[in-house]
Amino acid sequence: MRTAAVLIAIACVGLLAVALARMALDRPPSSGASAPPPRAPSAGAPTGVTPTAATPTPRGPDTGAAPGIGGTPTASAAPSRPVAPKRNVAPLPRRTYPWHTGIVSTTFWVGEIFDPTAPDGSQRISTYDARWFEHYGGCDGVVVAGECRTERRTAAGGWFPTRMTPRENPFYLDVPFDDLNDPVGWESRCRVVPWADDPGYAGRCTDRSFSYLKNRWVRLVGPNGATCYGQVQDAGPGEYHDAAYVFGHTDARPANRRYGGAGMDVSPALNGCLGFAELDGDTDRIRWQFVEASEVPRGPWTRLVTTSGVTTD
Fold first, then answer.
1. Domain 100-302 -> CATH class
2. Cis bond leading into 237, ω under 30°?
């Protein structure tokens, strides 16, 4: 009898333990925070399916067509845009121009009139610019009693004029080859000018509005070794198709026999920069060579670079 009572008690305790365990499983978390309600499906989502965050579909080339649904567009749906072929730009040739040594240089300046009876006696115009005086900005010097005269320049002022503000490069010069108005120079220019076939020059042999010489850069070394740079803006002195001297490789002497046999005129800025002994003489000697624009170092000669083309009227 006692044994049966004990067994019944044990069974009751077991049933009670099972009931308590089930109650514990069904009870909410003890932290007091209620679990969030299930997220409502977005509009248009199938019933019973919880939507996930949208993943962007990778976009193909922008051809105007929408990308394929559910994945990356195939080649047929979004054809590749054609690639433009690369342009081949011809590089400028590397060329070393010959030196011309022991050359007498005289000085000229915009606005000078040294011989009113000579066809080339006025520097109010140049062979490349019929309005040189106007385009340059006036007398490249000082006006005394109505006459345009030169002046001495100084390094402190960058060799620039002291009484006027130039509109073009005051570091200018001429060489005795006129490729525009001299008949021989015009006819032969594409045969004798070394850069005639370079990019920017090729194909313009018969172009009357184009000069192969205007604005070209020249390196000059003065009597005392000073190196300066200038741009061609006129032709002369004295000769106008002296190709053997201007473009030759034998250091030929200038054909000109006037003005001390000068083979070049330089501006007042170059006169000062090169250290000429004479302000307006014919005894200073220089050496010079053509150079490419890319070879010209920064200096007072690059402060105002002339880029204007030919002006005929």
1. mainly beta
2. yes
